[in-house]
Structure formats: structure tokens, C-alpha cells
Design brief:
- By secondary structure, the chain is of the alpha/beta class.
- It is built from 12 helices and 11 strands.
- The protein has helices at 7-24, 29-39, 42-48, 58-71, 94-104, 106-115, 126-139, 199-202, 226-234, 241-257, 269-278, 298-315, and strands at 145-150, 164-168, 174-177, 186-191, 210-217, 261-263, 284-290, 318-323, 346-352, 359-366, 372-375.
- The longest helix is centred in the first third of the chain and has 18 residues, at 7-24.
- The radius of gyration is 21 Å and the shape is globular.
């Protein structure tokens, strides 16, 4: 392994890994243990220096290791990974297994660190996107919708109308959108807050139609590429077997239905304009970005926001932005943060152009992966 000759370069990395263990992956005991081991290991920390600065996060090395496990490498470390059936809890043998595994797989792991980037295509967010689209369709008097997903990865969220989406109230009652089926990806979400307006968005009166869809991404994932889709699975934490199964089903559905994804440059505005020009006049265009803006520079974020506002004003599009609250549209007031999980919550915002005036509104708070949803009364 590579040894860093400058310890001052490694200490900030060690702090990042300890923070990740304490704050980011607390629900995954294996990753908590691995993060603490990496923080104590100059050999493992030095590998992180292979990454590009903007990708120098614990997630990338964790995913690079997980990808090798998912590939089927035969090694004792795999016994710790639930994603491949491992049932061994983190113990004293984990450190030896981890170091030996990384030493054996150093070449492909290093290749990932140099060239890959953390990438998810989390269809759990469809639990929020589903009622957001129903809400937009109601405001458009039931017009069919056209959805463009900026930063779409494999384009799996384009299938929002194909999945079964289920919501559970705090009292145990369920609301369901779509028809449950064994070969259909199912998204489940806990509803939070009082007076939730999802009743009329999920019943038959809240039906909506998605007639046009397109994904844009600088590095789209080909759903027929086994290596590329394995990397998507590697970016899902190994303890979350529900998300692993859901992702496999969604990928199978995408292969069958061929939801379109187009490669674009860092600036997607021209591609969005071309898409808008291709649409019939009777559809309501919706442009979505979800957990994308954090990868933009400040200048690129400002450019994207201005372009989206212009498209709303001039082309009648609706812009939906689901990002960290600090990345909400400029001048939008921050609604009261949810009582649970306030630090990691996603804020869903809508910018539209009713009655000739650009209007910004916060629609909902949610878990980053859609595990819970709190719809905001001010959105209605």
C-alpha cells in the first residue's frame, strides 16, 4: 500500500472518517466499524489521497470496497456484508480482513478512487415526487405532465408513475399509489405532521398522467452495463438490503421500459431548451433536480437557478428543486425545520409562474432517500 509521508495530510482525513462514523452512517454498524478502522490506518487513509478533491469523501472508498464484494471476490471480509448474505457482526477480526482485502484488491480499488464518483439513483425520493407531481397536475387543471430530471444517473426516477408508492400515517393507516406487484419496485414512506393533504393527492381524484420524460446527466449510467449498475449498488450501504432489492427491481424495470437518458455537458440549459421545444403545447413541463446542486460550484449553482427561473417565466415550466435547505432558491424563506432529523432533511421547493408572476414555495421536508415525508401546509 501507499504510505503518506506527510502526516499533516492524513489527520484531516482521519477526522472526516470519524465524523462520518459518528454522524453519517450510524444506522450501519459495519460502516461505523470500518470508518473507525480507516481513521486509525495511515495505509488506508493514504489511499483517499488518490481521489479528486471534490470526491474526497468516505463514501467513495467505502463504495470501492463494496463494489469488489458485490463482484463476488472470495474473501473473509464478505462475511461481514449483508448485501451478499454475510451475517458476521463487526468483531476483532474485521481489521485484519479489511486490510488484507484492500491489499489484494488495491489495483481496482485505486482505479475507482482515481476515476469514479459517488453516484446514487435513489427511487425512494419518488415517495415525495409522486405527490409533488400530483400537486402540479391539479394546479394545471389535470394537464398531462412532462418530466425532465437533471442529474438523472440511470434515469430510474423517470419511472415514478410505474412504482408502487405506499405511505403510512403515525396511526398506522396506509395510503397507496399504484398497484402492488412482485416485480414492481415498491417505495414505502412514513408520513409526518398533522393535517397532511396527501389524501386527495393519492386517491383516484388525484390521478395524474406523465406522457413525456427525459433524464440528463454528464455521466449517465447505462442500465444494460453490468459494471456500471454494480457501482450504483455499491453506493448503497450494505446493511440496507431493502434499498438493494428495490434498486435491483428498478433497474430491471428500466431495462424493460427504456426510460430515455441523454448525456449532456456540465451546463444542461441548452438540452433543456431543446426538450421544451419538442413538447406538444398541451403538456405541463416539470424540471427536477434532486441532490445535484451540492456538486455544483457556487457560480454554476447561480447560473442554474437563473436559467430555471427564466424557463419558468418565459416557457411556463415548473421547477422542482429537492436539495439541502441551504441550497434552496434564493430569497425563499426557510420553513420551520422538522422536529426529527433536522440536519439531514431535504427541502422540496417549487418555482412556478401562475397568473403571470414567478412564485416560490416550499412544498415538503423529507428524508434524503424518501423514508419519511412532511408535507407543508403552506404548499397548498
Amino acid at each position: 500500500m501507499t504510505h503518506a509521508s506527510h502526516p499533516q495530510l492524513l489527520q484531516p482525513l482521519a477526522d472526516d472518517w470519524l465524523h462520518f462514523a459518528a454522524m453519517e452512517c450510524t444506522q450501519d454498524p459495519l460502516y461505523v466499524a470500518i470508518c473507525r478502522l480507516v481513521a486509525q490506518s495511515p495505509e488506508l487513509l493514504s489511499l483517499c489521497l488518490l481521489t479528486r478533491p471534490e470526491q474526497r469523501r468516505p463514501n467513495l472508498l467505502l463504495a470501492a470496497i463494496h463494489e469488489r464484494v458485490l463482484l463476488g471476490v472470495s474473501h473473509a471480509l464478505c462475511d461481514y456484508f449483508p448485501s451478499v448474505g454475510g451475517q458476521r457482526a463487526p468483531d476483532a477480526g474485521l481489521a485484519t480482513a479489511l486490510h488484507d482485502f484492500v491489499a489484494q484488491q488495491q489495483e481496482p480499488i485505486s482505479a475507482h478512487l482515481r476515476s469514479s464518483h459517488t453516484q446514487t439513483n435513489e427511487i425512494g425520493r419518488c415517495a415525495v415526487l409522486w405527490p409533488v407531481l400530483a400537486h402540479i397536475a391539479q394546479a394545471a387543471d389535470g394537464a398531462p405532465l412532462a418530466l425532465l430530471d437533471v442529474g438523472s444517473s440511470a434515469g430510474l426516477n423517470l419511472g415514478v408513475d410505474a412504482y408502487t408508492v405506499s405511505y403510512q400515517r403515525e396511526g398506522g393507516e396506509w395510503l397507496v399509489g399504484g398497484e402492488p406487484c412482485d416485480d414492481v419496485a415498491q417505495v414505502r414512506c412514513d408520513l409526518r405532521g398533522d393535517g397532511n393533504p396527501l389524501d386527495r393527492l393519492t386517491d383516484k381524484g388525484g390521478a395524474w398522467r406523465l406522457t413525456h420524460r427525459l433524464g440528463l446527466d454528464p455521466l449517465p449510467v447505462d442500465v444494460h452495463d453490468a459494471q456500471a449498475t454494480r457501482w450504483l449498488q455499491a453506493c448503497v450501504w450494505p446493511c440496507d438490503t431493502v434499498r438493494q432489492h428495490r434498486l435491483r427491481l428498478a433497474l430491471d424495470m428500466a431495462r424493460q421500459r427504456s426510460w430515455p437518458v441523454q448525456q449532456t455537458g456540465p451546463d444542461s440549459v441548452d438540452a433543456i431548451l431543446a426538450w421544451l421545444d419538442s413538447l406538444p403545447g398541451d403538456v405541463q413541463p416539470v424540471v427536477l433536480n434532486s441532490w445535484v446542486l451540492c456538486y455544483f460550484s457556487d457560480q454554476d449553482r447561480a447560473h442554474h437557478e437563473q436559467a430555471m427561473v427564466d424557463l419558468v417565466r418565459e416557457r411556463g415550466a415548473v421547477w422542482v428543486s429537492a436539495e439541502a435547505p441551504s441550497l434552496r432558491p434564493t430569497d425563499m424563506a426557510l420553513p420551520a425545520t422538522p422536529p426529527n432529523d433536522p440536519k439531514g432533511a431535504t427541502l422540496w421547493c417549487q418555482v412556478s409562474h401562475p397568473a403571470g408572476e414567478v412564485r416560490q414555495r416550499a412544498l415538503a421536508w423529507s428524508h434524503p432517500h424518501g423514508a419519511w415525508l412532511q408535507w407543508l401546509e403552506q404548499a397548498m
